[in-house]
Design a protein that fits this description.
Layout (H helix, E strand, L loop, with lengths): L1 E6 L8 E6 L4 E3 L7 E6 L6 H8 L7 E5 L4 E4 L5 E4 L15 H15 L7 E7 L1 H15 L14 E5 L6 H8 L3 H9 L2 E4 L4 H16 L4 H20 L2
Parallel strand pairs: 4-5, 4-8, 8-9, 9-10
Antiparallel strand pairs: 1-2, 3-5, 6-7
Helix pairs in contact: 2-3, 3-5, 6-7
Protein name: Phospholipase/carboxylesterase/thioesterase domain-containing protein
GO molecular function: hydrolase activity
Organism: Glycine max
């Protein structure tokens, strides 16, 4: 799938358009009754295939996993060397500018992938590293009701999962939500699981619990309580000699 976004600051004062050609999408279909669909986004330089193989091993028979592949594009921090990436990265710092065009294009791709799912199915988005950042940005578009460029955001996700990621455009998010009661309500009630762990085993088990609870239509409060309990148990196991 391709997506074109306006680019600011082009020569002659006219807006150029960046074309984003997304790669292959891999789908892990549910082995049981379909209750939820999650778009899972890989990290920088990866593709959807590797994560689809891993997610297929999780004991979550009611979940459909959609694992797209990011566009191959020049990455500024790599000196322009091309890599699969959901958006461009110019610097690794809190003050680095956000690639709003790339983020909007990827968020729109996620929304498009979710748009064909049945109405009675719970929808979620998640990812690892840059994929986690893109997932969280997509959720921020949902809470604000619009993309960064002001266009309305059409998807209706129920939860988000991020592994070792960050929130792009975090400094301007509060301004987007300020004074918009509906956006504030969505932001306060939206369930998000963020993990920054040293062990993949722990992270995958926490994901399993969170997704399993959400897919069973549990409340946010009960889901959070279960995740906290499980995390405490697993931390104590890790500390044992």
């Amino acid at each position: 799938m391709s997506f074109a976004a306006p680019s600011l600051g082009s020569a002659g004062g006219r807006s150029a358009r960046r074309a984003f050609e997304f790669g292959r999408t891999y789908v892990v279909r549910p082995k049981g009754k379909h209750q939820a669909t999650i778009v899972w986004l890989h990290g920088l330089g990866d593709n959807g295939s590797s994560w689809s193989q891993l997610l297929e091993t999780l004991p979550l028979p009611n979940i459909k996993w959609i694992c797209p592949t990011a566009p191959t594009q020049p990455i500024s921090i790599f000196g322009g060397f091309p890599s699969t990436a959901w958006f461009d990265v110019g610097d690794i710092s809190e003050d680095a500018p956000d690639d709003l065009e790339g983020l909007d294009a990827s968020a729109a791709h996620v929304a498009n992938l979710l748009s064909t799912e049945p109405a009675d199915i719970k929808l979620g988005v998640g990812g690892f590293s840059m994929g986690a950042a893109t997932a969280l940005y997509s959720v921020s578009c949902f809470t604000a009701g619009k993309y960064g460029n002001g266009n309305p955001y059409p998807a209706n996700p129920s939860a988000a999962v991020g592994l070792s990621g960050w929130l792009p455009c975090s400094k301007t998010l509060s301004n987007k939500l300020q004074g918009v009661d509906e956006a504030t309500r969505r932001a306060q009630s939206f369930p998000v699981l963020l993990c920054h762990g040293k062990g993949k085993f722990m992270e995958l088990n926490i994901i399993f619990l969170f997704v399993n609870e959400i897919s069973r239509k549990k409340s946010v409060k009960s889901t959070t309580k279960r995740v906290d309990q499980e995390f405490s148990i697993m931390e104590s196991i890790k500390r044992k000699p």
